[in-house]
Each structure stands twice: as structure tokens, then as C-alpha cells.
Specification:
Blueprint: H1 3-7, E1 25-34, E2 38-44, H2 56-62, E3 66-74, E4 77-83, H3 103-120, E5 124-130, E6 134-137, H4 144-156, H5 173-183, E7 189-194, H6 203-215, E8 219-226, H7 228-232, E9 241-244, E10 251-254, H8 256-280, E11 284-289, H9 294-305
Parallel strand pairs: 4-5, 4-7, 7-8, 8-11
Antiparallel strand pairs: 1-3, 2-3, 5-6, 9-10
């Protein structure tokens, strides 16, 4: 991994938009009340407690003792979830190159940027790798040792892949996300990187898995990765090609121009369904055309998520 491509973003901030739970006082809004940052509400004074936060002006108007409550700020717990199934290796020539990445390379560099930002903010972060199951799941920690371990795990995903001998990891995305939801025991920000390539009969279970994450009160950001020209529009011209399924090895010979219109219609429908369901479940949907390059996607996203 080229760390110089990651370090250029370390001056930015990354914040949760929902309430988060944590152990330390930090930058993010908490569902708990304390006496620290921003006024939230009043509660009735209880005999014997400190009089420091009694609102005496309100007492003068109501002849009742009320205590000011404030919203605490707390550290963020962020779980980075990377789909490492074989379809994420497309296009194979983009493996390891952030300027023109494949889907997995984009996910690795984006996750590495978020780890660097979260570590600088003293927030906690964990990593989950998915394919046909949960291949790796680490708890959220904020230590430098943990940061280096996760960056090492991400770096290993960028090892060169032989186009004829790539690992054929299938996808069971919905099942893996359900397992992830059950393993996260505290309210977290879940950042998911996936191409969401599932069979038609697996699409509804995928939506159920996203709903499961939201039901557990996690904030969810979905980076939907694809190569629009080649994967969604089938823009290969009119000469015959042999298309190989990276996950099963099955192949098919055809002229793309003969099926491009019907294929494009179906793929765009699937993307529109995913975007619509994400909006319905209050999932932050981020479409990623990897042909644009890593920096053209990640910088606008981080600027949008930063606080002035």
C-alpha cells in the first residue's frame, strides 16, 4: 500500500451523524447525558446532589429547582466492513493502483484513510472481511498497535493477483452481514464496501441484512463499488468476448453489443433498487465508479462528512 496516498487526507475530520456510544470523552454526540458540552434539557433537582448546575434564573421564575443537562460527546466506534469476494477484484489490471483502482483496491485505500483519521481523532475502529462468510472480525480499539495490525491486514489484500489463478471467493453477503450485526454489541458506525453483486433471489435477503444493521441502531454507510462502463453498461464494442465469472470460473462467449441494452436495463434497475432501499432504511448510499479513480471519490465524501 502506498501510504503517501493515504496520508494526504489526515488533516480532515470524520464524524458520525447519529448518536454514538463510547467509553471516552471525544467529538461525537452521545445518547447519554452528563455535564460536559452542549445544553440539552432540564430535569428536577434531587435533594443531596451538587447545586453547581441548578438554573437559578429558572428558579426565580418558577420557584422550583431544576438542573441543566448537557449532551456528552464521546468517541466513535467505527466498524469497517470490506467485501473481499472475487468479484471485487474487477478490473484485474486495477489491483493495487489507487489512481485507477479495481473495486477491492478502492475499498482497501478508503478503509486505510478512515483508520488513519479515526486513530488521529482517538476514536475506536475495527475491521471485518467478508466473502462467503466472516473471514476476519476484530473488535473496535483505538491503539497504535491495533491501527498497524489492521493496516497490515488491508495491505495483504493488495497482493498481486494472477489473472488466470485468482482466488475464487464466492459471495454470501447477506449471511455475512447478519453475522456482523450480531457481533457488534454497541452502537457503531458501520462502513460497508461492496459491489453488492448477488443473485436475484439473494437481493431481498441483502436488504434484510441492511435493515438488521439499522434495527441494531448502527449508522450505516454503503460504498457501492462498480465499474460503470464495463460492469453496468457492458461497453465492450461489437467483437466477441469470453466473459469469466471471477467467483465460479464459469465462462460465456458472446457479442456484448447484442445484449448490452437489456443487460444495462437490468443492472441499472438493480442499482436503483439498492439506492431506493438505502434511502428507505436511512443508509448513506455512496455510489463508487472506480473508473473515476480513488481520489475523485473519497475527497468529496470526506469533505461532506467533515465538520467545520
Amino acid at each position: 500500500m502506498d501510504r503517501s496516498q493515504v496520508s494526504r487526507y489526515t488533516t480532515l475530520d470524520f464524524f458520525a451523524r447519529q448518536l454514538v456510544e463510547g467509553f471516552l470523552t471525544g467529538r461525537h454526540r452521545s445518547p447519554f447525558h452528563g455535564f460536559s458540552v452542549e445544553f440539552s434539557d432540564y430535569r428536577q433537582y434531587n435533594a443531596g446532589e451538587s447545586t453547581r448546575y441548578i438554573d437559578w434564573h429558572l428558579y426565580g421564575r418558577t420557584d422550583r429547582l431544576y438542573v441543566k443537562q448537557f449532551e456528552e460527546e464521546t468517541n466513535l466506534r467505527c466498524q469497517l466492513v470490506v467485501d473481499q469476494s472475487a468479484s471485487m477484484l474487477f478490473p484485474l489490471e486495477g489491483q493495487g493502483h489507487p489512481e485507477h483502482p479495481n473495486k477491492l483496491t478502492f475499498a482497501v485505500y478508503a478503509a486505510a484513510v478512515l483508520i488513519e483519521l479515526l486513530h488521529r481523532q482517538r476514536d475506536a475502529f475495527g475491521l471485518t472481511l467478508l466473502s462467503d462468510g466472516v473471514d476476519l472480525h476484530t473488535p473496535c480499539r483505538s491503539s497504535t498497535v491495533h491501527q498497524r495490525y489492521l493496516l497490515g491486514q488491508l495491505d495483504a489484500l493488495l497482493q498481486p493477483v494472477d489473472g488466470e489463478h485468482h482466488p475464487q471467493r464466492p459471495t454470501s453477503l447477506a449471511d455475512a452481514l447478519h453475522l456482523t450485526a450480531e457481533q457488534l454489541h454497541r452502537r457503531s458506525l458501520v462502513v460497508l464496501f461492496t459491489d453488492a453483486f448477488v443473485r436475484p433471489d439473494e437481493q431481498e435477503p441483502l436488504f434484510d441484512a441492511l435493515r438488521h444493521l439499522r434495527h441494531c441502531k448502527h449508522e450505516v454507510i454503503l460504498f457501492h463499488t462498480f465499474d460503470r462502463a464495463r460492469e453496468l453498461d457492458l461497453d465492450y464494442g461489437s467483437r466477441p468476448y469470453r466473459f469469466v465469472d471471477l467467483e465460479t470460473g464459469r465462462s460465456l462467449r458472446l457479442r456484448p453489443s447484442e445484449v448490452a441494452e437489456a443487460y444495462g436495463r437490468e443492472m441499472n434497475r438493480l442499482q436503483a433498487d439498492l439506492q431506493r432501499r438505502s434511502l428507505q432504511y436511512h443508509v448513506d448510499y455512496v455510489p463508487v465508479d472506480v473508473a473515476q479513480g480513488f481520489h475523485q471519490v473519497i475527497l468529496p465524501f470526506l469533505l461532506k462528512r467533515s465538520k467545520a
